[in-house]
Amino acid sequence: MIRLVIVRHGRTEWNRVERFRGRADIELDEIGIKQAKAAAARIAGWKVSAIYSSPLRRALTTAEILAQPFGLEVKSLVGIIDIDYGEWQGLSPEEAAAKYDSLYVKWLNSPHKVKFPGGESLAEVRERAASAVNGLIAQHPRETIVMVSHKVVCQILILTLLDLDNSHFWQIAQDVCAVNLFEVRAGIPSALSLNDTCHLKSVN
To answer: In what order do the strands lie in the sheet with 179-185?
Structure first.
């Protein structure tokens, strides 16, 4: 059995004001750091063997805070970097809706059919993220590992582990610094908790 702990990074300024972040390398804000510390306290009692992170700073900083109780070094994993939003990066939802009207409607209603101009599709994210997590499962049998990533990638990883296709994308919620826990037994993943944010109740 392997335990997979999938964590979305803490809050950034672009989470607070809601902009398409993608590959923009944004730091955690003050609340985001507090959230990461709360998540670290949440998982500190688990026997974590390794911590992997998207190479973007908001994820790396979250992962480094999570790693402190275990004395572990965070390993960068490019396969779980955020989606490439291409021309949408930095736009607010309102700006994206105004500039890319029909594509924005498709994103809301059929996200699995969207490829962002100059960026990625959910299928491309799934291919690289699933490959990354399968590699970790093979590398860490009978261990507990943590992966720190981003909203879209966490949603896609959860769909992959639940054997659901990308059309279910909007049925998976992922709040900032949420913790998700899976067990994989005999190659079959099962969800123990999804979008757990109980540890954030005292963060403000």
So the answer is: 75-76, 48-53, 144-149, 2-8, 179-185, 188-196
pLDDT of amino acid 204: 72
Question: Which of these is catalytic: 112, 140, 150, 168?
Answer: 150
Distances in Å between the Cα of 202 and the Cα atoms of 67, 111, 131 are: 21, 34, 36
In tens, the pLDDT along 115-127 reads 999 999 999 999 9
Q: Assess contact for 53 and 60: CB atoms under 8 A.
A: yes
- Nearest alpha carbon to residue 77 among 23, 149, 2, 134: 149
Q: Are strands 188-196 and 2-8 parallel, antiparallel or unpaired?
A: unpaired
From the number of C-beta atoms within 10 Å of its C-beta (0-12, 13-18, 19+), residue 150 rates as buried
pTM, two decimals, is 0.96
- Distance separating alpha carbons of residues 1 and 109, to the nearest angstrom: 37
Alpha helices in 48-165 (DSSP H): 57-67, 93-99, 101-109, 122-139, 151-161
| Active-site residue flag, 199 | no
| Whether 150 is catalytic | yes
Residue 79 main-chain phi, psi, to 5 deg: -65, -20
The single residue listed with the structure tokens 């809050």 is 11
